[in-house]
Specification:
about 130 residues, Four Helix Bundle (Hemerythrin (Met), subunit A), 5 helices
């Protein structure tokens, strides 16, 4: 795995940690935003790994579409990326979303699902361990 992929992975891990902390602290919009950021960074890390330039999009479903030629099991994260995409912008501004504990926890869970899926692809392909 090259240094650029490793850097995206590092930021993805950090965003998941922030999302988990924010969720526990009751900062629900921040939890959802960082969950989305975690998913976005994992998808961009994979795009780079497969020799693609990641687009500046925050639309995780679109990024997943770009990965589809390189991976067979993209369908397992479709629900997660569709839900997480909503938090890219709306969760950053007042009065855009009303988020409860369950929704924030689900967003964090979706980010974990994307992470587990992406790690399996990266580490199985590269022979490294997380």
């Amino acid at each position: 795995m090259n240094a650029q992929v490793e850097e995206w992975v590092s930021y993805a891990h950090e965003d998941l940690e922030v999302a988990q902390h924010a969720s526990r602290a009751g900062w629900l919009k921040s939890a959802c935003f960082h969950a989305q950021q975690c998913g976005e960074k994992w998808l961009k890390a994979l795009l780079i790994y497969y020799g693609q330039s990641p687009t500046r999009s925050h639309d995780l479903d679109y990024l997943a579409d770009l990965l589809e030629p390189f991976v067979d099991n993209i369908g397992v994260i479709r629900e997660a990326v569709l839900v997480l995409t909503e938090y890219a912008v709306a969760a950053r501004y007042p009065n855009r979303l009303s988020i409860d504990d369950n929704e924030a926890n689900q967003a964090v869970q979706y980010a974990k699902e994307v992470q587990v899926w992406a790690e399996a692809l990266l580490y199985n392909a590269s022979g490294q361990s997380p």
